[in-house]
Amino acid sequence: MKLVRLSASNILGLPDGAWSFRGPAAAEPHDVILVTGVSASGKTSFLRAIAAAKEAVGSYGPPVDETRLLRRGTDAGRLESTWLTDGGGGPHDCSFNVGAAERPQSPLPLRAAFSVLSYSRERGKFEYFAANRRLQASRSSPLLPPSTPVIEAGYRLTEHAEKYSLLYRVLSDAIKNDASATASLLSTRGIALRSDLPDSLGLYKAAVARVCPWIRMVAVEPQERRRPLIWFEKQGASSRLELGELSESEQQCVLFAWTFTRLGLHRSVVLIDTPELYAHPSDHLRLFRAICQLGEDNQIIAATASPAILSSVGPDQVIHLPAPTEGR
Fold it and tell me: H-type helices in the chain, by residue range?
């Protein structure tokens, strides 16, 4: 699925306007769109508006308080959007009045595609990497209870700082299931070849290596009622490092790798606020390209001020927001 067009009026922090996500002669929307501008120009608000437009069609979680989206001093706003669904269905036009009691009916294909979170890589979905994203690196952090797509869906388009802590339960359960399967194999065969041993973490390890080639995820050590210890090997380091001992930029790499793998982010709309977060300017472009390559046929919409990232795409792939004005 992909976003083709967005227009907004009276949305907090965002200038009124209409924006196309495809070039002048392009039949299909771009796979990468960058949103930029000076400080407080509305880059984050732009991503929030896209999330709100999606949730108005089909919500992953409880309804949001739409009054928080409205520009101060106004009691009505409007968002209009055009989408393509999986397989090229559409375009589908949607519009809604922010804060209105009644919601107009959206096209059924969109409601069906937008309302349900599936871990299948065959089904498109939405993810929002907010600027406050982080992995809970403390070894003493409690392990969250098992999650389900319904529970996890409610976090996906939020800016909940701890939403990625759900990943620890997935990794902990995976390593325990592998150990159980190995024990069962040994009890029935008496021997197990390396090629027979399950490796539920294989995709996670490969994704980490893709986005951060100088570190390697080597082991997950479950803890009783605490988040598991995640061990890495790093070029130039004499011993293994636990997740919390990696640099902030390396932890960001791990966060992206795990999340794309866990959710099966393919054919999806991925919103990223400041993809270059914590990274050195010399690594901005490499990191961004690696993130884009974690999934197939995604539409990446990123808010960024990185000159290296901005210069890597065509001018019709960059949305420049004007400087803020009073009252916006």
Answer: 43-57, 108-115, 149-153, 166-189, 202-211, 248-263, 284-292, 307-310
